[in-house]
């Protein structure tokens, strides 16, 4: 494994130039790495190349001169030490499948995308295992935690987790990304880190609905707490370490996404609570609110596994079956009374 403190000759690709991909590319570029940034949108490539700024997804954030935008996916990932994939979860399979032939087996592929695939119920590294069959799972890592792109780009203090089944690779990824304002913890619990990052988006929609209905801070705190219980319950069933959900990629990311004004998922929920229809909300958004698609995955996965996730089920009902927020609230508040730790 290459020394992450030695930037000479190290080459990195970032696949996906949304707000989060761009912010991470900038972070890496400012550490001295050469970063090939693959952007699907020609206008984004042109803006970064001409103005050093992604005006579409991360406006008013000057970018490192070490970022090289490109529309050539195969060229971007070939002969790289690390490939960071930051695309919407529903295109992860397509994009990584297209780049498979150009990757060398010893490349480390890091997913910073958050979601669970609808058809397969796989996390993002689970998809990588299928689309990149020539690579072993100890070359896949996940990066997740409470991290709004705009704040990372502004160098605000941020703490996240890098997880890989191979402890040495996790430590390497940790050092590649760490800066004095971007602290990274290492973990071997890939499943726990990915589940926390994915399911919290569903709970954030619920938190937004609570705020949109004007139900108060008590209700929002209760929603976050019981949402964390659902995430932990699902994680336990899938073999995750329960302690992971008390860390940055669990409680940390959940709190941020459920309370922060920059959260797209919270915004979707708040507008639903205020009476807007989902199709109207999504028509106004250019960036993806991952919780909308993940809600379907979580509901179907929990039913298949027999995991009790009432909040997540109500969000699915609201998004896909035109349910009523007030009726959902009533059902949740009048469920059979249980012991707090009853799983």
> Taking strands numbered 1, 2, ... along the chain, how are they ordered across the largest sheet?
3-2-1-4-5-6-7-8
C-alpha Rg, in Å?
20 Å
Fill in the CATH topology of the largest domain: Rossmann fold
- Name given to the CATH homologous superfamily of the largest domain: NAD(P)-binding Rossmann-like Domain
Report the CATH architecture of the largest domain: 3-Layer(aba) Sandwich
Q: What oligomeric state best describes the polypeptide chains here? A: single chain
In total, the number of domains comes to 2
Low-confidence stretches: none
Structural class: alpha/beta
Helix % is 40-55%
Sketch the major β-sheet. 8 strands, mixed
* Measured distance between first and last alpha carbons: 41 Å
The CATH class of the largest domain, by name, is Alpha Beta
Strand and helix order: EHEHEHEHEHEHEHEHHHHHHHH
Tally the beta strands. Answer: 8
Written overview of the protein:
- By secondary structure, this protein is α/β, with parallel strands linked by helices.
- The chain folds into 2 domains: 178 residues, Rossmann fold (3-Layer(aba) Sandwich); 142 residues, N-(1-d-carboxylethyl)-l-norvaline Dehydrogenase, domain 2 (Orthogonal Bundle).
- Helix content is 49%, strand content 12%.
- It contains 15 helices and 8 strands.
- Strands 3-2-1-4-5-6-7-8 form an 8-stranded mixed sheet, with helices on both faces.
- Helix 8 packs antiparallel against helix 9.
- The chain is globular and about 60 Å long.
- The termini are far apart.
- The model has no long low-confidence stretch (mean pLDDT 95).
């Amino acid at each position: 494994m290459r020394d992450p403190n030695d930037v000479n000759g190290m080459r990195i690709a970032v696949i996906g130039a949304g707000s989060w991909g761009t912010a991470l590319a900038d972070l890496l570029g400012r550490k001295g790495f050469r970063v090939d940034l693959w952007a699907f949108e020609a206008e984004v490539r042109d803006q970064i190349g001409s103005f050093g700024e992604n005006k579409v997804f991360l406006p008013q954030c000057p970018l490192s001169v070490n970022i090289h935008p490109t529309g050539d996916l195969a060229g971007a990932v070939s002969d790289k030490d690390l490939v960071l994939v930051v695309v919407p979860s529903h295109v992860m399979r397509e994009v990584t499948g297209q780049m498979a032939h150009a990757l060398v087996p010893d490349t480390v592929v890091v997913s910073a995308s958050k979601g669970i695939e609808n058809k397969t119920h796989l996390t993002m590294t689970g998809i990588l295992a299928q689309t990149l069959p020539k690579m072993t799972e100890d070359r896949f890592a996940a990066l997740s935690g409470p991290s709004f792109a705009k704040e990372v780009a502004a160098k605000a203090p941020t703490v996240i987790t890098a997880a890989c089944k191979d402890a040495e690779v996790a430590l390497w990824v940790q050092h590649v990304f760490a800066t004095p304002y971007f602290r990274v913890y290492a973990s071997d619990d890939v499943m726990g880190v990915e589940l926390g990052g994915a399911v919290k988006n569903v709970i954030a929609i619920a938190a937004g609905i609570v705020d949109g209905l004007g139900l108060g801070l008590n209700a929002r705190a209760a929603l976050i707490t019981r949402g964390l219980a659902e995430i932990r319950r699902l994680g336990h069933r899938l073999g995750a370490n329960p302690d992971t959900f008390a860390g940055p990629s669990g409680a940390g990311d959940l709190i941020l996404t459920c309370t922060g004004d920059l959260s797209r998922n919270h915004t979707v929920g708040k507008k639903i609570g205020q009476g807007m229809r989902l199709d109207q909300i999504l028509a106004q958004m250019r960036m993806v609110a991952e919780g909308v698609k993940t809600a379907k995955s979580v509901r179907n996965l929990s039913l298949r596994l027999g995991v009790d996730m009432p909040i997540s089920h109500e969000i699915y009902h609201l998004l896909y079956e035109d349910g009523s927020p007030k009726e959902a609230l009533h059902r949740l508040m009048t469920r059979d009374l249980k012991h707090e730790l009853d799983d």
